[in-house]
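call fold target=NTP transferase domain-containing protein
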Amino acid sequence: MNALILTGGISQRMGRDKALIERPDGTRQIDHMAALARRFSDHVFLSTRDDNDRGTGLPLLVDEVPGSGPTAALSAAAATGLSGPWLVLGCDLFLLDEATIGHLVEHRDPSRTSTAFRNRIDGRAEPLCAIYAESGIQAARDAHRCARKFLEALDPLLLDLPYPAALDNVNTPADLTEAFLKLERGVVPKAVSLLYFAILREARGLSAESVETLAWTAAGLYEELSFRHRLPLETSQLRVARNGEFSSWDAPVADGDEFVFIPPVAGG
């Protein structure tokens, strides 16, 4: 099996190269991902928008059209002409572990063009921790769509995640804080109560609900809700209150808490 680690993004929302971020144990994220990939493949490549291997020594597959997204990386993999399936991993999966990849490899169906996990929140295919058969990789050469839509068009075998938070996105500093707390404290479900006002109440179609969350921070909780329900506002546009008191977005989440996400009020 070949393996491809994707590092072609510009990390604009993070404000720095996510591949070079140090994990809580001091390991660079790119080195962590390379070590994981090597446990499943003797042919590990780094997908990049330039010729920078970030000190890994891995062979590079440079995007033919920089900035054109993960399907460009898959197309570059297809252009190598290598036979066999490809294990494709996004570099910014800070919670990904060997057991999750092992589950994917063990349950892969070689007769299918691809095998992937369902996203834990919306149930759709996760393209950046997936195995693409040779035919699936070749199809990327004609793809002009987002990675998720491309994968879904391949009719993949979809698996449930054995470890729910393993593929959680890390795009912002707040996401990184959330991911590191999960690494340090574990992934712990918590029941919380939510109150909605104004535009958020309209978007949800209700004023209150109780939910289960894996988040450790108020920001992480809102990101879960926003992803699940496509909420119209970002944290920068809101204030948050925890248990009746205004708080910061890094406020902790504990079982039984009540949160209110407060949108701007016209004229106020």
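return ok
The chain has two domains: 2-159, 188-262. Residues 188-262 form a domain with the Ubiquitin-like (UB roll) fold (CATH 3.10.20.30).
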